[in-house]
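Quick log. Single chain, no ligands specified.
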Amino acid sequence: MRVCTKLISSTHPTLHLAYPTVESFIWNTLIRAHVQAGSRPEVLTHTPLSVFCRMRFHGVEPDFHTFPFLLQSFNSPIQLHSGRLIHAQIILFGLANDPFIQTSLINMYSSCGDLAFARQAFDEISQPDLSSWNSIINATFKMGLICIAKKLFDDMPARNAISWTCMINGYVRCGYYKEALALFRVMQTVGVDGVRPNEFTMSTVLSACGRLGALEHGKWVHAYIGKCGMEVGVVLGTSLIDMYAKCGSIERAKWIFDNMGFCKDVMAWSAMLSGLAMHGHAEECLELFTKMINHGMRPNAVTFLCVLCACVHGGLVSEGKEYFRRMSEEFDITPLIQHYGCMVDLYGRAGLIEEAWVLIKSMPMEPDVLVWGALLSGSRMHGSIETCEIALKRVIELDPTNSGAYVLLSNVYAKMGRWADARHVRNVMEARGIKKVPGCSSVEVGGVLHEFLVGDDSHPETREIYKMLDEIMSRLRMEGYVGNTKEVLLDLDEEGRELALSLHSEKLAIAYCFLKTSPGSGWLTFMAISFKEFVLFPLS
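-> predicted structure:
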C-alpha cells in the first residue's frame, strides 16, 4: 500500500484529467490511500479532503464507502469544522443511517474533542451495534468521563472481546490501573460465554501491571498468555519487556527481548532501551543502540528519547549532546519538545544551567511545563535561586495549579535558610487554594498491592509497620545516615524534622516489605507514584 500510495499520489492529478468521470471506487481508493499515508506527509501532494473536493468537482457522487475513510482523516480539534462539513454532506446524500458511517462519525467527533456531538451521533442510531457501543465508550474515556463510560458498558445488551478491551484500555489510559486489573478478572469469569481476551487485551493488562509495579501480577499474566496458547510476537513481546522493566525485573526483560528472535521491530528495541535507561544501565543502553543500528533497524523519535533518558540518568552529558545531534543530522528526525526537555534535564542535573538556558532559547517551539520544570529542578539542585524563580514563574503561567513547582522553590529557600521566603511561597499556595498532592507509594507483597500515603495510618498493620520503620531508621543512623532536614519547612526542632522525613510514603512501603519478607528472598520493587520511578532494594 505504501508503494501504491506514492504512485497514486504522484500521478492522480493526471488521472483526473484523463478520466474526469471515473467511478467512485477509484476515488475511494485515492482517499483511503491518502488517509493511510497521513503519517508520511512526504508522499502526499493532497489531503484526503482535497481529494474528496476534486471528486465532487468532477461530478462523482460519494457512496457509503467514501465517508468512513474520509472521516478517519479528521482527528484533532482544529479539524472539527471540516468534519462537520463532511457530516452535512453525509446527510445531503442520504447516508446518515449507514451503520459504518454512524460509527465513523462517533470516532471523528471524539477525536476532534466534541463529546456532545459524538454522543448525539450515537443516540441517533436506532439499533446501535457492538461497534457503535465500543466507539462511544472509547470516546467517553477520551474525555476522562470514567463513570459515564462504566455506565455505558454496564448498559450494553451484549459485549465482545473488543468491548472488554476498550474498557480495560480506557481505565489504563486514565490511570485507573487497579480497576483495569479487576475488570480483567471479571472478564475471565465470563469467558465461558465465549469472550476470550485477545492480544491487545493482554498487552493492555500488562501495561497496567507495569504502571503499578505489580511483578507477581505480571508474571501471572505472562503465564496466562502461555496457557491460552497466544504467540509472543512483537506486540506481546514488547509489552512483556516494558512490564518486566517497570516492575524491576530487568533480567527477565532481557530474556524476553533475546528470545524474540527476528520479530523485533523498532518499538521492541525502544522498550528494551527504555528499560535499561530506567534501571540506570546507561552504558549498556548505548551499546544496545549501536547494536540496533548495526542490525539495520532505523531508530525513531521514541528510540532517541529512550537513549537521551539513559544519558540523563547516567550523567553522560557529552554523549547526550552527540545523540541529540545525530538524531537530526544523521537520521533526519526532528527533535520534539520531549527531546529538548531531556537535554534541559541533562544539563540541569550536571549544573550546566547556562547551557540549558541557551538550548531553551534556541528551541523552535515554545517550552512547555516539562521543559521549565526540568530547568527548575536542575537549578534547585545546584542552588541557582534566580533561575529557579524565573522557571517557577513560567511554570505557573502555563499551569497555575502545579503544586510541585511551588514546593521545589520553597525547598530551595529552606535549604538556604531563607525561611521567610519559603513561608511566603507556602502562603501564596494557600492563598491561591493550591494544595500539594500527597505522594503515594505502592508495593506488592505476596501478589497483593499495598498503597501508602505520607504519614499513613490506615493500614491494618500500622503499628508493626512503624515499629519496623523505627528499627530501619535506627540502623541507618548507626551506619552514619543523617537526614537532610534543611528542606523541611516546619516550625519544629531538628528531631521533629527528622520525624517528618521518616514518614514519607516510600519509607512506609519499604518498612512494610521488610516486615513481610525474609532475608535473601529476592528484590523488593515498589513504585513511588508521585515521581513515577521504580526503586530496587536487595532483601538480604
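The first helix runs from residue 2 to 18.
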